[in-house]
Amino acid sequence: MEPTTVKKKSPQRFEEDPKPQMSEGMKKLKKRAARTAGFIGTLASAAKETVAAVKEDVQATRERDPAARSNKEVLLLYPGIHALAAYRVAHRLHEKGYYFGARAISQTARAITGIEIHPGAKIGKGLMIDHGMGVVIGETAEIGDHCTLYQGVTLGGTGKDVGKRHPTLGNNVLVGAGAKVLGPFRIGDNTKIAANAVVLAEIPDQCTAVGIPARVVKKDGVKVEDELDQIHIPDPVAQEIRRLEEKLAALEGELSEIKKQTKGRK
Ligand SMILES: CC(C)(COP(=O)(O)OP(=O)(O)OC[C@H]1O[C@@H](n2cnc3c(N)ncnc32)[C@H](O)[C@@H]1OP(=O)(O)O)[C@@H](O)C(=O)NCCC(=O)NCCS
């Protein structure tokens, strides 16, 4: 009986073996897993940053809302604080390109608080959104530090602009209840927009603007007089008649003087 010989694979054959390829399905799965891990990582770091920001938001509400009695009350019961906390997480996700997750968070916050803040908006420190219901802050809106917005405020677009469509608020701006600020212009530092005003153009620093469309009624604490009184407009026809009456009276005077002189000569 012949001894059995074990056939060895030649090294040549190993080299010829095609490298095992990852299937398309596996590639997609791996990509999705990496994206999910990135999403969770961003969410965790955003949550950490939000805790610090919320402390400032609570402080802002304590300073500006005389009805706020304790930090606990503000933190647990103020919808403005909840909407801002959700926004800060959503904004971080939006910046990292997780648009769907960011919108999902902002829409959930809107359903709970009645405040809609687009994750793309840029918001500074110490914003107070008082009462909050019906507040809308558009995608390209920017808000400086220590601003105050009341219920029903819209920082929106007119529908005519593309790209930057929403307003920019400076620092320490107050926007009263129901006011609409529409368009890609700036509202200056320390400016107040009155309740129910509709602002369609830039308002400088340190002003108070009221009405529809909004006009500046105060600048640096001093009343601004209207250049033209739109109600008491002078009547040009009446003015002309008055001038003619004056001329007639003068002519009558001259005539009676002439009559007197000619009577004396006779
Ligand atoms: C505008 C506002 C901020 C006051 O600012 P201010 O610089 O102190 O202005 P003044 O109060 O001196 O008012 C200036 C002029 O604007 C008028 N004005 C004030 N608020 C107005 C408004 N909402 N709509 C129309 N005119 C208004 C005033 O009557 C005054 O007119 P006058 O000069 O002819 O008398 C304040 O009136 C306001 O609207 N705050 C919003 C507060 C809010 O929304 N609260 C909701 C709580 S739930």
CATH class of the largest domain: Mainly Beta
Ligands, deduplicated? coenzyme A
Q: How large is the radius of gyration?
A: 36 Å
Helical content stands at 40-55%
Short synopsis of the structure:
The chain has 266 residues and is α/β, with parallel strands linked by helices. The chain is built from six helices and 16 strands.
Structural summary, described in words:
The chain is α/β, with parallel strands linked by helices and 266 residues long. It folds into three domains: 32-119, serine acetyltransferase, domain 1; 121-227, Hexapeptide repeat proteins (UDP N-Acetylglucosamine Acyltransferase, domain 1), CATH 2.160.10; 232-266. Helices cover 44% and strands 15% of the residues. It contains six helices and 16 strands. It has helices at 11-16, 24-64, 71-77, 79-95, 99-113, 236-265, and strands at residues 116-117, 122-123, 128-129, 136-137, 142-143, 148-149, 154-156, 168-169, 174-175, 180-182, 186-187, 192-193, 198-199, 207-210, 215-219, 222-223. The strands form three sheets. It has a seven-stranded mixed beta sheet. A five-stranded parallel beta sheet has the order 1-4-7-10-13. It has a four-stranded parallel beta sheet with strand order 2-5-8-11, with no helix packed on it. Helix 2 packs antiparallel against helix 4 (79-95). The protein is elongated, with a radius of gyration of 36 Å. The N and C termini lie far apart (180 Å). 29% of the residues are buried. The mean pLDDT is 90. Bound molecules: coenzyme A.
